[in-house]
Amino acid sequence: ANLALQEGRLVAAQMELNNAQIQLDEKQMELDRVQAMYDTAMKEKQALVDDAEACRRKMNNATALIEGLGGEKLRWTASSKNFQNQIVNLVGNVLLATGFLSYSGPFNQEYRNLLLHLWKKEMDNSKIPYSNDLNLTGMLVDNATVGEWNLQGLPNDDLSIQNGIIVTKASRYPLLIDPQGQGKIWIKNKEKNNGLQVNS
């Protein structure tokens, strides 16, 4: 009788255990679902935190760039104004440069300056704008080219550089009156790699 009673209790306990196991499995599945949702939410949170940090870095960089460029505004404004002046004065400057290339070749520095002064006077009378501080040498040739010419034997004075400009930029063949032979040395060195042939 006791055995039967205990077996009955065992069966009841086994059923209770089975029910508890079923509940435990259900709760475990629910916990797994909630854990998966939690993990997804944490990943989204981390992604948002990373995005926010990236945005903060970009904003800091943009702020630094804007502050850095703020100082350039004055220089850009001045450059823009200078470019506008250059555009307005371009026709007159080109006219002076072409006049220099076409007509001033045979003359010395003093007469070239006189010609330039007379041309500017005529342009003032005709209301043709030009740059008052126009540097024809700087307009027609860059410093690197002048430096190369000096290495090739051209003297560094203004007259010689102007002569070099006329030789290289004018459309007509130049005639060099060259008692010291500096022009001849320069042209030989300049054209050495181009197969220059010299008749002595």
UniProtKB/TrEMBL annotation:
Transmembrane segments: none annotated. Residues 8-119 form the Dynein heavy chain coiled coil stalk domain. Residues 148-198 form the Dynein heavy chain ATP-binding dynein motor region domain. Residues 3-44 form a coiled coil. It comes from the Eukaryota. Keywords: Coiled coil. InterPro entries: AAA_9, DHC, Dynein_HC_stalk. Pfam families: AAA_9 (PF12781), MT (PF12777). The keyword Coiled coil applies. This is Dynein heavy chain 5, axonemal.
